[in-house]
Amino acid sequence: MSQPAHKVRIGTLQVTIWRNTSDKGNWYSAQLTRGYKVDEGWRETDNLGFDDLLAAAKLLDQAHTWITHQLEADRKGRKQSEKAA
């Protein structure tokens, strides 16, 4: 299994960002999860409660910013490699 490109966390909420590659370049996807404890350890769910919503919005904003910067870095890297070729 591939490694996440980046993770952002606030409390028990986490956004995992995945880098995907294609012949047209990289694209990114994000998965929002909330951790919760059970007797056997920690589990994850995509269900959010009322108290999770503001933190989730902030996390998604941070994920959006990170992906935006990565896409720009990817574009610059592609342009530089095209000039070198």
What does this structure look like?
The chain is α+β, with helices and mostly antiparallel strands and 85 residues long. The protein has one domain (6-84). The protein has one helix and four strands; from the N terminus they run ββββα. The longest helix has 32 residues, at 53-84.
In terms of DSSP E residues, the strand content is 35-45%
Q: Helix proportion of residues, in percent?
A: 25-40%
Q: How many extended strands? A: 4
The profile of the biggest β sheet is: 4 strands, antiparallel
Number of helices: 1
Give the SSE string.
EEEEH
Radius of gyration using CA atoms only: 16 Å
Given helix and strand content, the structural type is alpha+beta
How many domains make up the coordinates? 1
Taken from the alpha-carbon principal axes, the silhouette is elongated
Question: Which ranges are low-confidence, i.e. pLDDT below 50, for 5 or more consecutive residues?
Answer: none
Summarize model confidence as the mean pLDDT.
Answer: 93
Q: Describe the strand arrangement of the main beta sheet, using strand numbers.
A: 1-2-3-4
How far apart, in Å, are the first and last alpha carbons?
Answer: 32 Å
